[in-house]
Structure formats: structure tokens, C-alpha cells
Amino acid sequence: MTATIAELMGRTGVKFGTSGARGLATQLTDLVAYAYTKGFLQYLKECGDLTPGTREVAFGGDLRPSTDRIMTAAMRAAADLGHGVVNCGKVPSPALALLGLERGIPAVMVTGSHIPADRNGIKFNKCSGEVLKEDEAGITRQTVELPDGLFDAQGAFTVSVSSPAPAPGPASEGYAARYLQFFGGNCLQGLRLGVYQHSAVVRDILVGIYQGLGAEVTPLGRSETFIPVDTEAIRPEDVAFAAQWAAQHRFDAIVSADGDSDRPLISDEQGRWIRGDVAGVLCARFLGADSVSTPVSCNSAVDLCGWFPEVRRTKIGSPFVVSSMLDASRRGRQCVVGYEANGGFLLNSPVVREGRTLRALPTRDAVLVHLGLLLLAKREGRTLSQLVATLPPRHTASGLLRNCPVETSAGILARFTTGDDAQDRAALAAAFGSVLSGSTVTLIDRTDGIRATFSNGEILHLRPSGNAPEFRCYTEASSEARAQELNDRCFEVVARMAG
Question: CA–CA separation, 166 vs 86, rounded Å?
Fold first, then answer.
């Protein structure tokens, strides 16, 4: 029996978004995971990324309940195509990607990242790096063979399927060694750090890295139940936890990451979480970047600070950031980086310091952001709150409307997408102008969703999620309080539109 990936995507709803294919765990059946992995590997052979000599495929996953089952199905697909399976177990996404790049083999990460535990996904990495949007199209058009009798009518295996025993060492240990060897010594000596562990797959690795670099580390908030920590829409309880821990322990910072640990969380000494697009600017400064690629939704402080010779704006999603970085490197830039509003930081150039080299890792990473901010603050003799204050006063906030069907999201955007720019600006001003003190719309950017700049300098960005039934509302203003107030009030308008 054969099936096309396009047909399965249409039938199951498990489609490519900004970070791989995602859907409900019940939709991501054994059959779907098997077929998508086969389609991915077939595509790599078709496009020449997977050479005849490449026999291994690396696999890893996060800590959500459905991950083991989906990993088993994906590994069976690789084995049926004649590949050796490297089961790295539960490891961070960037650790698995790093192993794949170092060995020149594909890497398949089973993760739903920050989304709720009843959902999951598969993130594919080619031998040469992240799957890009053009690659997704190539995977989608594949037709795959599904062995007769292997699946039942619900897409579950009809036979017992086992997978190789996990061997997490090469991926997790290599990832930790990347930072221990490059930064070395006791560069964090004197710092008191809290590590908010929750259910992040990197939780124990973080403790090992920061202790190994000389910090005094206190693990916090470990959970054996999966917690969907979203670094773009931080839960109120996590805001409260950080403030409480900071006051109790007098930390210099609290560090954490999302479920698959490619997106960082880092707080200042007062336990206030630093937004990802602020942390990204500061990490880029620490590295001395001469080209920064970042989505259109990110804070405009990166444009206003004057620290970087080149700032490139992209659509939202790491594949678009990677494409922009690749182009910057082709054009001769020497220290090419990218970051996203969720904090994920991508390094497209090797960094050489004191005879040591930090190799490029062009996929979202959390640890580099933690270290970049901590070491920049230490170098400049500042606290993290003082470091953030060196940026131009532009503050962002975001809200998330969950369980918002795709059709509802499309309907919201359609109100402001008539094809007549003047009419669309007037419609935005009518819907949100009272919230923005009667301001008019001076500019609409449609790179990804609708980003409206108002005459008072404040910004509103409306966008459906690319991988979940969610709708996001981003706002930007000159103060943190105003950005949050603006977001709360605009979000109320959006919620009413959604019904």
C-alpha cells in the first residue's frame, strides 16, 4: 500500500508549521510518524543531501507522554529503508541537531516544543542543517510505501515494534562539551544561578554546564508532569515563581528553556523574565555580530541601537531566519547570527576566541543566550537589569488566543486585507484606534500576518500561529507597562472578533 504525504496531511491535520510537522498526538499516529519519516528520508536522497554512504539517522525526543511511541514509529521507518538508527533518547533539539551536523547525518526530533501535552510533532534536520520551506514542499510531495498489515484502521501498529536502546551520551555530552570547552575555566565564578527545570529536556544538562563553568547553581521547580512553557507567552505562575525565587535566593539570574530546550528563558536579578527578542539583541552584541536576521515581529531596538552593520527582517519561523543567514554568509558577512521573539538563537558562523572555536549551530539554541547575557553583564560590570537598560526604550508584549481555529484566524485577518491599503489602514484605526489614543495607521507590513505602525510610534502585530490553532497578538511601545496595557486591550478586541 502507498500513501502520499500531502494526502496524509490533508486527512490528519498534521501539517508543517514554523517548526516541523505538528498536531494532536492522536492525529500523529504510528502510521503518520512512519510515513512522514520515510518521506523525509526519501526526499533527502532525491535532493542529494543524503549520499549513498550515509547510513545512519539520529533520533531524539522531549519529555511529553506521546514521544516514545512516535519515536519508535519514526525509527522503524528509517530501519525499513536500510538505515542504522542512533537513538539519542530524551535530548534537547539543538543537541540532536549538533550531533547530526558533526556526523553529517539526518536528525529527527520528536517534539511539540512549547505546545500542550496532548499535542506533539516531528522536527526534521538534513545532514546540512534545518529543513527549509522549500524542503517541506519536497517532503510533502513524496509517495511512500506502507507495508501491508503493519497498521490497523486507526493507524496503530498491528505488531510489537521495538527500537534500539537509548544512547543519549553522544548528543547530550557533546552539547555540554561544546560550551564547557569553548568558554572554559571558571568564567561564571561568583554568579548565583537558579535553574528552573520544570519538564525541559535540557534541565540536568543546564545544571552540569553552569556548575562546570564555576557558577553556584540551585535547581528549581522540577516536574515529572509535562508543563507547556511558552517563552513568548510566559504563564502568570512562572512570572510569580521567578520573582519569589529571586527574592528568596538572591540569584544573579534564573535560567530555563522550553520543552525541547531550543528556546531560552533568562531572568534578571529581580526575577523578571527578559523577553527573547531583547535577549537576542544582547547575545548578538556579545558575539560581535555583523549581520543579524530576525523576524518582523521582533523588538525594533535591534534597528535603533546602532550596534550592527546589517539587520535583516524575515517572516516568522526559524527556516526563514536560516535562509536569511545563509544569504548573509554568501554575501561575505563574518559573524552571522539570527534570533526569534521566542529567544531561540542561531549561529551561522564559527566564533574564534583565544585559540578556541565555537562551531556554527544554525538552529535555535538556548544555552548560548544564557551564556551570552551572563558573560556580557559580567564583562561590563552590570547586573542583567542594568544590561537590558542599555538598549533603546522599546518594549514588547504578546498575547495568545488558544483554541482559535484556522478559519477564525483567517477571518480576523480578512477584516484588514481588502487589497486597498487606505481602506485597510482605516479599518485598523477603527478597530484599535481608541486603544492607541486615536492614532492613525502610518504603515502596514504584511511580511507575516499584519504589523501596523501607528502615528504615536506604537506597533500592533496580528498573526495566526503557524503550527497550532492559536492566534498571537504582539504590541510594542516605549515602556514595559504601556506595551503590556496595549497588548491586554488589543487582545480583548481580538478575542471579541474571534467570538
Answer: 8
Spatial separation of the C-alpha atoms in residues 396 and 298, rounded to whole Å:
8
DSSP string, 373-408: HHHHHHHHT--HHHHHTTS-S-EEEEEEE-S--HHH
**Alpha carbons 209 and 203: distance in angstroms, whole number:** 10
How far apart are alpha carbons 308 and 161 in whole angstroms? 52
Q: Which residues, at least 6 apart from 7, have a Cβ–Cβ distance to it below 8 Å?
A: none
185-190 long-range contacts, CB within 8 A, separation 24+: 185/213, 185/214, 186/213, 186/214, 187/213, 187/214, 187/375, 187/378, 188/213, 188/214, 188/215, 188/374, 188/375, 188/378, 189/214, 189/215, 190/214
Asked whether 105 and 86 are in contact (CB, 8 A), the reply is yes
Can you give the pLDDT at residue 422?
94
Which amino acid is located at 214 in the chain?
A: G
CA trace torsion 61, 65, 68, 74 (10° rounding): -70
DSSP string, 241-255: HHHHHHHHH--SEEE
Sketch out the chain's domains with CATH numbers.
2-168 (3.40.120.10), 190-388 (3.40.120.10), 395-498 (3.30.310.50)
Q: What is the pLDDT of residue 467?
A: 60
Looking at residue 320, what is its pLDDT? 93
Calculate the alpha carbon distances from 46 to 39, 42, 135, 146 in Å.
Answer: 10, 6, 11, 19
Instruction: State the Cα–Cα distance between residues 485 and 108, nearest whole angstrom.
Output: 41
Using alpha carbons, select from 101, 185, 214, 176 the residue that is nearest to residue 354.
Answer: 185
Q: What averages of pLDDT result for each successive group of 10 residues across the chain (499 residues)?
A: 95 86 95 98 94 88 97 97 96 97 96 93 95 94 97 96 87 97 94 98 98 98 95 92 97 98 97 95 98 94 96 92 97 98 96 95 97 98 97 89 88 93 93 84 93 92 81 91 93 88
Determine how many CB atoms are found less than 10 A away from the CB of residue 422.
9
Phi, psi of 107 (to 5 degrees): -135, 130
pTM exceeds cut of 0.85: yes
Instruction: State the Rg of the chain over Cα.
Output: 22
Residue 400, pLDDT score:
84
Reduce the DSSP state of residue 459 to 3 states and report it. Answer: strand
CA-CA distance, 114 to 232, in Å (whole number)? 9
The 10s digit of each residue's pLDDT in 324-335 is 999 999 999 999
The kind and range of the H/E element at 475 are strand 471-477
Coil, helix or strand at residue 180:
helix
Cα distance between residue 109 and residue 125, in whole Å: 8
Q: Which is catalytic among the residues 66, 93, 113, 324?
A: 113
How far apart CA 413 and CA 404 sit, in angstroms, is 13
Does the active-site annotation cover 113? Answer: yes
